[in-house]
Design goal:
four-stranded antiparallel beta sheet; seven-stranded mixed beta sheet; PyrdxlP-dep_Trfase; alpha/beta; binds pyridoxal-5'-phosphate; 11 strands
Amino acid sequence: MHPVLAHDAAQIDHILAQTLATAKQFLHDLPQRPVGVASQIDQPDQLPTNGLGAEQTLEHFLARYSDTLTGSTGPRYWGFVTGGATPAALAGDWLVSAFDQNPSGTTETAAIRVENEAISMLRELFGLPTSFSGAFVSGATMANFVGLAIGRQWAAQQLNHDVARMGLSGLAPIPVLSGAPHSSIYKAMSMLGMGRQQLQTITLQSEREAVDITALRQALQALPANQPAIVVANAGTVNSVDFDDLMAIAELKQEFNFWLHVDAAFGGFAACSPRFAHLVRGLEHADSLTIDAHKWLNVPYDSAMQFTRHSALQVEVFHNSAAYLSPIGENPGFFHRTPENSRRWRALPAWFTLMAYGSAGYQEMVERDCDLAQLLASYISDSPLFRLVAPVRMNVVCFSLVGNPDSTTIQAYLDAVRATGAVFMTATVYAGQPAIRAAFSNWRTTAADVELAWQAIEWVAREHRT
Ligand SMILES: *Cc1c(COP(=O)(O)O)cnc(C)c1O
C-alpha cells in the first residue's frame, strides 16, 4: 500500500474528526456567510506525484476555497429554487458515503429495501396511489428524462414500433405539447433524440402560466388521426408557481390518445398542506411524474424522484440484462428502471428526513416558506421602489423595480444586492418583461431572514436610483 494511503487508513478517526469540525464550523457560520459569492480565478492545482494525505488536503482545500463557498444551503439564498439540507438528511447523507452501498439490484443489501420504503413514504406524502412505482435519480432533469423516455416507448408502441429495440428511425416525430415547460423538458427531448423543436408550446390562460385547456384540446384535435402524443403538464412553474389544471387535462384523455407527464419538481409539495393541495388535484392521473428532492424535500444534492404507473414499459426502456446480474423477474431491480446501473444510495437522506420530521414537519415547512413569500410580497407591494409582477401563489415572489427597467439594469441591481452578502436572488423574464425572483424553499428561513434581506433589497434599490 502506498505509504500515504496506509497512513490515512491508520488515521481514519482523526480524519473524520477533522472533517466533523470543518462541517460544524461551516454550519455554525452559515447564517453570516455571504450568499452567492463570485468565484476567484486562480492557478489550478496540479496532480501531485506523492499526495498530501487526507488531513493536509483538507487544510489545503480550506485555505484555498473556504472563502468562495456560497451560503447557498443557508436561509437567504433565494435564487432559482434551492433547498437546503435538514439535520436528519445531512446525517443520512454522510452515512451514504461511509456505508457506500450500491442499491442497483434487488437483493443483497438493505439499501434496496430502504429505497422502496422511502418511495412508499413519498407516495403517501404526495397522496399518490400504490399503482405508482418510483425510483431516485440525480435531479428533476433526469426524472423528466425518464418520464419522457417511458412516454416515448408508449407512444411508439401505439404505432407498433418498439423504440427500445429498434431505435427511432422509421418513426415520425412524437408530438410533445406543453404550456409553460421547464427548460429541462427541451434538454430531455434533445437527449432522447426526440428533438427540441418537436415541443409544441400551447397558449396560456391570460395573465397566467397555466395552459389554456381549450387551446390544448384544439392542438390535440389538430394532430393526425391515431397520432399518439405526450402532454407535459406543469405543476409549479418557476416564475409564478402556476399549476396546469390536471383534472381537466386528465379528462381530455377520454377523447385523445396521449401520455401525461407531470413536472411537479417543487410544486408537488403543494400536496403536503391542505392550504395548497387543491393545486395538484388530479396528480394521480399522471402516467409519469417528476418531483425533486434537493429542492423542497431539503436533502443534499443530487436527488429527485421519478414515479410512473407503467413500470413494465419503464423496464422495456431501461433494462440491463447480463448473465452476472439478477434477472428482470417480477420485481425488477433499479438497474432495470433507471438510466444508471451502479448508483449512490440517494434514498437514505430522504428516508432519514421523512422519518425524522414526518408529514407534519413537511406541512409546516411548506406553509412557513409560503408565508414568508407572502411577507416579502407585502413589503414589495407597500414600497414605492418595487412592484409585484405576478401573484404569489406559493413560495416564489416575482417582482421588479418600478419604471420598467431593462434586463441589464435588473442584473446590475441584483449584482449589487448580492454584493451585500445578505440575500441572493436571480433574474427572469415574466410575460416578456425582465423581472426578479425570490424563491423560498429552505427549512432554515424565518421571518427574521426576510427582515434582514429586505433591508438590503430596499437599501440597494434606493442607492441604485440615485
Ligand atoms: C428545478 C426544476 C427542474 C430541473 O431540476 P434539476 O433538479 O435541477 O434537474 C425541472 N422542472 C422544474 C419545474 C424545476 O423547478
